[in-house]
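Customer ticket, subject: "Can you confirm the structure for Crosslink repair DNA glycosylase YcaQ family protein?"

Message body: Hello, I'm evaluating your service for our small team and ran a test protein. I'd like someone to confirm that this is what the system normally returns, since I don't have a reference to compare against.
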Amino acid sequence: MNSLSISEARKLVLLSQGLPAKPQKGSAYDKSLLAFKRLGYLQIDTISVVQRAHHHTLWSRNPDYQPQHLDQLVKDKLAFEYWSHAASYLPMDDYRFSLPRKLAIRSGAQNHWFKKDPKLMDSVLKRIASGGPLMAKDFESKLAKRTGWESKPTKQALEMLYMQGDLMIAERRNFHKVYDLTERVIPSHIDTSVPTEQEYARFLVLSFLKAHAIGTLNEITYLLKGVKAQVANALSELLESGEVEKIRVTNGEYYVRPESLALLNQRLSRKTANILSPFDNLLIQRSRANSIFNFDYQLECYVPAAKRKFGYFCLPILWDGRLVARADCKVNRKASKLEVLHLFLEHSLKAKDAFLAALEQELQAFATFNQCGGYTIEKTSTTPY
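Agent reply: Thanks for trying us out. I re-ran your input and got the following:
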């Protein structure tokens, strides 16, 4: 079994993720498409303290990214919305691999958080079939009781039809979903055959390792229900065929595609700082980020204010091949300023002056991306551990 140092493992992971971004030829839109395909999914998030996560993640890999690119990818039928480990944009070429979950929800083998109302679902579906794409607000539906968390029955019907595959998201208008019949959204050339269990498991393994370089069984099956045994079998078969091999890293054993090891011969930019989204593909699995990058991270917007260590929306910062800082950020739209409420430097950070010079450039670029004229840093500290 081959071995990698933790530094080599980090290099493989970062290069596979397209971080830091390298200069590329082509239009800004083409570069966004390439980054999207490299990642394999983009997690959608509604929090807008700074630019939303699905835009932020692509911008981190393509400095020329514009928020309208994602809408254009959907319009061009190169991307679609569905569930990965969470609500995501997925490559349209991978559409068939969304079918196992859809069919499981349709059959009742996998539960969804809304209960099915077949009569209402049929009525909603017929209205869209005859009248064209609609949003939830286009349906009148009253709640029997309002507590602040529930959604109206027609919204639940739309979501169930979407989750089981009858409807897709044709577009978003002011971030509101527009639902349409699947057959009117999906391109005619896309493979819609249901993958076998073996095909689906192979896809999960190979797509994860392509995007992340190295991975464990638990990481490959992160938040996916009922697939661990299938993926374990697929890994055994892929090991036997030589399409995957095991690699030992300082912190444990991982699976890797042999072709990914060639990335060790490429150069990793260590002078550029990258401000990352909390939902970035690189670190959405917090235990993996801790294991590989020794970066203990929690998004604290869901933590009571009195218990927060780093702030409401603290963004991890990549530099020199490591995660070396975090910044609690907020866009002040009225003042057109990106406010760094608190910058926390990791205790292990060396060459602080070089890092801060790189961060200055990144903060200005991030401010511009957030349609701000500039930025301020209100406080800087070093983490106590």
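A couple of notes from the result: Residues 274-382 form a domain with the Aminopeptidase fold (CATH 3.40.630). DSSP finds 13 helices and 15 strands in the chain. Feel free to reply with more questions.
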